[in-house]
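Entry:
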Amino acid sequence: MSFEAVIGLEVHAQLLTRSKLFCGCATAFGASPNVHTCEVCLGMPGALPVLNREAVTLAVRAALALDCTVHERSQWARKNYFYPDLPKGYQISQFDRPLATHGHLDLEVEGSARTIDILRIHMEEDAGKNVHDDVLAGSRSYVDFNRGGVPLIEIVGAPQIRSGAEAAAYMRELRRTLRFLDVCDGNLEEGSLRCDANVSIRKVGATTLGTRTELKNINSFRFVAAAIDFEIHRQIAVVEAGDAVVQETRLWDAQAKVTRAMRSKEEAHDYRYFPDPDLPDLVLTAAAIHSARATLPELPAAKKERFVDALGLTAYDAALLTEEPELCRFFEAAVAGHKNAKGIANWILNELLREARGQPLAALKLTPESLAELVRLIDDGTISGKIAKDLFAELVTAGGAPAALVKERGLAQLVDTAGIEATVDAVLAANAGSVAAYRAGKTNILGFLVGQVMKASGGKANPKIVNEVLRRRLG
C-alpha cells in the first residue's frame, strides 16, 4: 500500500518591537525571570490592553511581502485555554476575521521550484514560558512571564507540503524573508521563530485528508525535517498494523529522535473563541496599506535573481550572499564602491567568512569600502594577490585604508621588466636542475619557478610579467 504525507505548517514569528503587543513592557530576550511584566500582561483585574502600533506595521509588512490580501478591518478574539503560562486564562488572538489571507511563498527544494499557499496571517500575543528544572528538589516547574504578551504573527500554510525536506526548505525561505523585512530576527534557539507541523497520511490518489497529529514548537530546521519524517513513518506503521492514527499533539524528542504523545489535540470549538470586549476592531485604511506596499524592500529572492542577471554571479554564490541580511548588505555596499561584483563576492565568500569565524560582520574592522578599494588595487595591477591576502587579514583585525597602507609600506607590484628579469635570472641560476627538467618536457615545473621568483621578490613582482620573462628565458 502506497501512502503520501500531507503537511501544513503553522509558524509563529515574534515581531521586532521594543515593547509588548498590549502594554509597555520590554520584549528583550534573556532578562531575569518575570522582570518584564506589568498589570496588563499579567492579566490583573481591571487592567486594559492598548494596541502597539509598530506591531501592526510589521505584521502588515510581512503579509504584503508574502502576497497576502491585507483586510481593512480585522477583529481581536479571546482564545480560551488554561495553562500555567497564560495568566489571563485566555490569549488575545484573531480567529474568523484575521489580518490577512490568501498569500504564497515560493521556494526551491533540491533544485525544483515549489509554491506553498499561505491561508492566513493573524496577530496574537505570545504566552509565557514554562521552565522545568529536574535538578531542583522535587523536579519543580516554574513560569517565566517575560515572554507573555510579546507580539506574534502566526503564518498558517496550506497542507501542500509532502516531506520533511520540503518543510525545512519552507521554514528557511520564510525565515530569510522575515529577516530581510526586519520583521523578525528569526532566532530559533531563543524561540522568536517557532513551528508547529500538522502531519497526516493518506493513500496515494486519495483526496480526503487523514487524521492529523500536531508536532509542537520545533526549534531547528534539521529537527523540523527529522520530526516530520519520523511522524510520517510512525503513522504509516500504525495504519499498516491495522490501527487508527489518534488525533493528538506530540513533542519531538531530539535525543531519542522520536515523537512522543503530549496531549489530545484541541479543535477550534474547544477554545471557545469570542470577540474581545476590551478591544475594538483593527481598522486600516486603503491608503495605509498602499503606502506599506510601496515601502517594501527588495526581497531576497529578487536580490538573488538580480545578482545573477545584472551582476553576473553564479546562482550558488547569489544564494549564499542572500542567505543573511548582514552579509547581503555588506556585499551591496562593497559593489557600490567598485563594480567588480564577482571579485568582491569571491573575497567575501572565500576569505571574509573564514576570517569572521562566526562573528557578526559588524564586529570586524574591515568595512565594505575597504574591501572595494582592495579589489580595485588588485584589478588595476597595483598589488598582487599574495600581497592582497596578507593585507586583507590585517584589515579584518585592525582596519585601515588599503591604498594608504600599500603606499606607506611600499607594497605596490614591481612592473619594472629589467628588475624582474634580474630576479628571474638569479632564480634560474639557483635552480639549474628544474631548468633542465623543464627543457626536457616537464613543463609543470614552471609553476614552481614562478613561485620562487615571487618569493624572491617578496611577493611584489607582477605575476603576468614573471610568467612572460620565465617562458622567454626558458626558450
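The radius of gyration is 30 Å.
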